[in-house]
Amino acid sequence: MDKKEMVKEVDLARVSAIVSEYKDEKWALIPLLQRIQNEVGYIPPQSIPMIAKNLRLFPSQVQGVISFYAQLYTQPRGRKVVRVCRGTACHVRGGKTILKLVKQQLRIEEGETTPDLEYTLETVACIGVCALAPNIVVGDHVYGHMNPKKLEQLFKNRRSGG
Ligand code: FES
After folding, report:
1. If you average pLDDT over each of 59-68, 114-123, 149-158, which comes out highest?
2. pTM of whole model > 0.70?
3. C-beta of 12 in contact with ligand 1 (< 6 A)
4. Is 125 in the pocket of ligand 1 (CB under 6 A)?
5. What is the Cα gyration radius of the chain?
6. DSSP codes joined into one string, the chain
7. pLDDT of residue 8
8. What does the buried/exposed string (b/e) look like for 11-49 if buried means 16 or more CB atoms within 10 Å of the residue's CB?
9. What is the pLDDT of residue 161?
């Protein structure tokens, strides 16, 4: 079993323990999903039948709720979310190049998470600080006037394998 598979097994066991506290409580679907999201970091797709069975729902009902709420994820998320702005102000000031370089530095595409679960890469329509364009957000911190050199500094630990 590779490391990724082992992580999945552990996550499923954690989900199972949480789900067992909500037996037959149909009303609890949303709070239960939020709790799994908070404690496990995502809702493993393999756990959907188990969640449904425990609450006496159809798997499609569980899936429907997960799809509806943007803050529920079926893939692991990185500890830090990197959001590259693709708004007009950032775009005209090189945002596209910044996104390309972030992808190169992190070796992931948009919507993906690094294998060490450190970063998830997303794009956003506008961060709201257009005067500082181009911008990226890492975790809670906004980095304005981004350029290749600043980016390299920001992720330099990764380049040295950290
Ligand atoms: S367009 Fe990028 S912050 Fe507004």
Report:
1. 59-68
2. yes
3. no
4. no
5. 19
6. --HHHHHHHHHHHHHHHHHGGGTT-GGGHHHHHHHHHHHHSS--GGGHHHHHHHHT--HHHHHHHHHH-TT--SS---SEEEEEE-SHHHHHTTHHHHHHHHHHHHT--TT-B-TTSSEEEEEES--S-GGG-S-EEETTEEE-S--HHHHHHHTHHHHTT-
7. 76
8. beebbeebbeebeeeeebbeebbebbbeebbbbbeebbe
9. 47
Cβ–ligand 1 distance for 127 under 6 Å, the answer: yes
Least confident of 2-16, 45-59, 121-135: 2-16
Ligand 1 atom at shortest distance from the alpha carbon of 85: 2
CB of 132 within 6 A of ligand 1: the answer is no
The residue type of 141 is H
Tens of pLDDT, residue by residue over 41-98, are 899 999 999 999 999 999 999 999 999 998 899 988 898 999 999 999 999 999 999 9
The residue to mutate among 83, 84, 85, having the most atoms of ligand 1 within 8 angstroms of its beta carbon, is 85
Residue 160, pLDDT > 80, answer no
